[in-house]
Amino acid sequence: MVKKLLPWLIIIMVAIAMIAVTAFVLWEYVIKDPLPDDPADRARASVADVEANRLSAKQINERTVMIEGITTNLADINYMIQISFAFQLSNKKAKEEFELLAHSVKAIIIQTLADTKPEDIQGSAGQDALVAKLMNAINPILREGVVSKLEITDKIMTRY
Prior knowledge:
Elements: H1 2-31, H2 39-48, H3 57-62, E1 64-73, E2 79-89, H4 92-100, H5 102-114, H6 123-138, E3 147-159
Antiparallel strand pairs: 1-2, 2-3
Helix pairs in contact: 2-6, 5-6
């Protein structure tokens, strides 16, 4: 009796396993909303989570931290860049925390630029990609808020 049921049990188990694998594949690749591959899209998605109310100029100034005059080599050692940024934080506590972590932020910026090729930051699309990379790298170290906006305020790239 057991010998007659064994093939049927194996067929049922294989069918259940195939249904489970199919359900997993459908969930991962079709149903679930994946994170965008483009860093700029990911940054926009995280910024969309932050409140979208319009701030006054005074409020923006109270939440903004400047990091100026970072000079480093790019991935191509024949190129050097000097760059400055304005970081707008989501709230005042985040600004205070950001100021305390300025040394870590500078290290992240230098590391990101060291992995960046000169052609990767050409034009507005390249600058947007750099801003997105930096936001995605810096936001995880903040606990009190997020970088809601990042602007390049000065950039000089030269070949030497």
